[in-house]
């Protein structure tokens, strides 16, 4: 958050009267260019007389200690001994701030002041905050507090040395600009670290999906280790959702799914993997509008590849028109069809053998007798009126067709195994011809 004048200690008064609030003395600062860190603050420091820096030098160490003390007082997360890596970084940050500003006072060529190392310190502070699992609130508070302390010390210095009103206002403006600039640098570092972490996490989770869905299944220990690396809670069971591929199209924008859902949205086999389908798969149609999806069966995590296989098979049946064209299809709603068409070579062989008596008929005759025979088998030898009602034809038509069927199939109609083969074949033929 930017520092406001009202949050600062009041400026001291001298014989020249009250010092006006710094923010009222200058217009808003332009945004800092990423390629030229410190431009505004360094320009302001450079406009001050060089002798001010010389006279302020004895106050550098007291100022640095005061900033550290007040920052630790204001930010509970920083209330720990200033030792180890954390201590070195925060101490370096404070000293770097004070020295950088002091060295810029009265510089004749502000652009020549080296800023790479200075900028790296504050970008690194942003990275550390991300790595520590904190938001930027702590660091931004520390910067505001540091600015307040610096302003108080500059005020005291002005009172002791008789610094002009103009110089004091410039110094105040430089403090505010500097706080804004180091805040921006830390935001850059934080954002960069977060982006890298997100990219690493995506790669690790993609590798986890590859392991889960590989066939044969990998060793459980390998999956568990990769799940831990990818920060994914390994469930006892998983459900895989197959998404319709979109060759040549831009990948989907990452959807708003629960963090525990694994996603692979590109390539030839896009999919989702979840350990909690009730939580994660309720609004799939809204998450991926206009894209076909098939929810595979829930299986043991070690059998995740099977869930994907059956989801993909179901998706192909939807694409062929054998199953209804729905945006979201669930395998468990079509298990008999999936079983029936699990091996199309075998089912076509069964159709050819069992329905061979119909081979000599015209397509229309074959269709009529086939549907009549199927209803007769389904109703376990139902009456002509019952079958006629199911087919929407006159009972006499049913009797005529059944006489033809008896002539064609003969004793096979009395054999339970043959009747089962006939029903399976007729059902499969109806599906494959749809």
TrEMBL record:
Superkingdom assignment: Bacteria
Biased composition (Pro residues): 19-31
Residue ranges constituting the PucR-like N-terminal domain according to the UniProt record: 45-213
Region: Disordered, residue numbers: 1-41
Name of the protein described by the UniProt record: PucR C-terminal helix-turn-helix domain-containing protein
Ranges where the PucR C-terminal helix-turn-helix domain occurs: 370-428
Residue ranges with Polar residues bias: 1-16
């Amino acid at each position: 958050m930017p520092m406001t004048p009202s949050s600062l200690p009041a400026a001291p008064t001298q014989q020249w009267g009250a010092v006006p609030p710094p923010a009222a003395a200058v217009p808003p600062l332009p945004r800092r260019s990423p390629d030229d860190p410190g431009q505004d603050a360094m320009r302001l420091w450079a406009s001050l007389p060089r002798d001010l820096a010389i006279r302020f030098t004895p106050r550098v160490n007291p100022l640095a200690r005061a900033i550290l003390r007040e920052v630790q007082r204001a930010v509970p997360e920083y209330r720990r001994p200033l030792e180890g890596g954390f201590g070195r970084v925060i101490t370096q940050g404070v000293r770097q701030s004070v020295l950088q500003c002091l060295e810029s006072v009265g510089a004749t060529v502000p652009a020549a002041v080296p800023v790479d190392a200075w900028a790296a310190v504050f970008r690194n502070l942003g990275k550390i905050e991300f790595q520590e699992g904190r938001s930027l609130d702590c660091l931004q508070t520390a910067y505001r507090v540091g600015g307040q302390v610096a302003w108080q010390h500059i005020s005291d210095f002005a009172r002791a040395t008789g610094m002009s009103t103009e110089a004091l206002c410039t110094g105040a403006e430089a403090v505010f600009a500097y706080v804004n600039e180091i805040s921006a640098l830390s935001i850059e570092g934080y954002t960069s670290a977060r982006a890298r972490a997100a990219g690493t996490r995506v790669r690790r989770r993609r590798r986890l999906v590859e392991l889960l869905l590989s066939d044969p299944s990998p060793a459980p220990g390998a999956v568990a280790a990769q799940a831990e690396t990818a920060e994914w809670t390994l469930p006892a069971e998983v459900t895989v959702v197959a998404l319709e591929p979109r060759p040549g199209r831009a990948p989907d924008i990452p959807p708003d799914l629960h963090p525990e859902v694994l996603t692979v949205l590109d390539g030839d086999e896009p999919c989702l993997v979840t350990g909690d389908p009730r939580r994660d798969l309720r609004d799939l149609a809204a998450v991926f509008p206009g894209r076909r999806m098939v929810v595979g069966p829930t299986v043991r995590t070690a059998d995740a590849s099977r869930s994907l296989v059956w989801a993909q098979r179901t998706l192909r049946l939807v694409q062929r028109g054998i199953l209804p064209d729905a945006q979201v299809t669930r395998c468990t709603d079509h298990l008999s069809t999936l079983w029936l068409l699990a091996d199309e070579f075998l089912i076509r062989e069964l159709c050819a053998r069992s329905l061979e008596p119909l081979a000599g008929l015209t397509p229309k005759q074959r269709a009529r007798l086939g549907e009549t025979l199927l209803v007769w088998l389904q109703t376990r030898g139902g009456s002509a009126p019952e079958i006629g009602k199911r087919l929407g034809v006159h009972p006499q038509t049913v009797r005529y067709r059944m006489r033809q069927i008896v002539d064609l199939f003969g004793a096979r109609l009395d054999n339970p195994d043959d009747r089962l083969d006939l029903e399976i074949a007729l059902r499969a033929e109806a599906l494959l011809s749809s």
